[in-house]
Amino acid sequence: MRKYLAKTLIISLAFFTISLAWSIYNSYVPVFLSGLIKSSTIVGAIMTIDNLFGVIFQPFFGRLSDRTKNRFGRRMPFLLVGIPISALFFFFIPWYDRLDSLFPRHNLSLAFIMVLVILMNFFMSVYRAPAVALMPDAIPPSLRSRANGIIVAIGGVGTIIALTLGGSLYKLGKIYPFMLGSGLMLLALLVLVLFYREPETPFAADSDEEKDGDAREGERGRKGLFRPSLLFMLLTVFFWFCGFEAINSFFTLFCKERFGMNPGDATQMMAPMVLTFMVCCYPGGVLGSKMGRKRALLLGNALIVAAFLGIVLIPDYTWTTISLLICGVGWALINANAYPAVTQMAPAGQTGRYTGYYYAFTFAASIASPILYGLVADLTKRQGWLFLYGGVMFSIGLLFMFMVRGKAISE
């Protein structure tokens, strides 16, 4: 891994820009929108645009990057277009209300911020799948879990910078977190351009893996999402993210009902889990390389289900905190190994396409699960079902995981 460490760290800057931008975006754009729109439902719908665009555009741009080859590389052209343009629109988001001072007779703030949000989301979709596909192109299959663990951890650093430094800057003025985000996005792109060159021939799954059962089915005419193991793996990912996204969306309401906590304290309660997740990402990738991805994913799934069950059965603040730490370990195991498993199922030259599949299913879960759990909470008039719901989603994912076959997942 030492041979590829510097390359992995440079590649991780692409994912760093994504995590940083989205953390700032999700923290402050709802605040801006709530000042312009009275309906929380409409605000929530606008905030799902990124997920909707992820489902629609990321498979397309991922596949397009597989077919692209010029002097800049396969993936880099999409970063060279997507990062600076999305950074530009991202920078101007907090300036949405400046038009009212120029045109006082027209309420243009809502129209302006909607244009900025839509265009920023689109150009983020242009480069996300190609950016993530840089890793499997440059890293041998046996080291991808470790490399992905590093990349996810660096993405976590971006989130922490957004929440800590960005939060401090927001107190000075709403434009400053967005200035920080845009500047770091452009700086990361500059480092990538100066110090990274895409390989002429990307790494692919080795010849043995291409001859496993799933690939033989492809030779008989089944392609893309019709390959059973790929579909089962993507459904596994979908239900895992269904469980995670519901908790991410409703955790503050859960804590308010169970412990009488305010939203700020509930958010801080999640911080140790995020830190544990970051610390465990790389060890999770190492463990996946040594014991096999499937075993590592099953272990991560088991830890999360056990922790969720503990929270359901023991309504105690301290135990909930401990259980969340266990969840951080399990989620790290899943994040470090799931994406490499999907990309290693990809035929030669289709890594970007499979990256798009992976993110399409995660974003689909981000759209569907908060709505589904919201219906559960509305029907039962309780938020206390949150971790039971999450446990059910992860258990369904576990069932699909058992159906996945092939060396890409077992080694």
Question: What do you see in this structure?
Answer:
By secondary structure, the protein is mostly helical. The protein is built from 17 helices and no strands. Helix 8 runs antiparallel to helix 9 and helix 11 packs antiparallel against helix 16.
Primary descriptors:
411 residues; mainly alpha; 17 helices
Architecture blueprint of SSEs:
Layout: H1 2-34, H2 40-46, H3 49-67, H4 76-92, H5 99-102, H6 109-132, H7 134-138, H8 144-172, H9 176-195, H10 213-219, H11 228-259, H12 263-291, H13 293-313, H14 317-343, H15 351-380, H16 386-401, H17 407-410
Question: Gist?
Answer:
The chain has helices spanning 2-34, 40-46, 49-67, 76-92, 99-102, 109-132, 134-138, 144-172, 176-195, 213-219, 228-259, 263-291, 293-313, 317-343, 351-380, 386-401, 407-410.
Q: What string gives the helices and strands in order?
A: HHHHHHHHHHHHHHHHH
Oligomeric category: single chain
Low-confidence stretches: 206-222
Structural class: mainly alpha
Give the proportion of residues in helices: over 70%
* Rg measurement, Å: 21 Å
Number of strands: 0
Provide a count of the helices. Answer: 17
State the shape. globular
Largest sheet: none
Q: Mean pLDDT, as a whole number? A: 85
β-strand percent reads under 5%
Distance between the termini: 17 Å
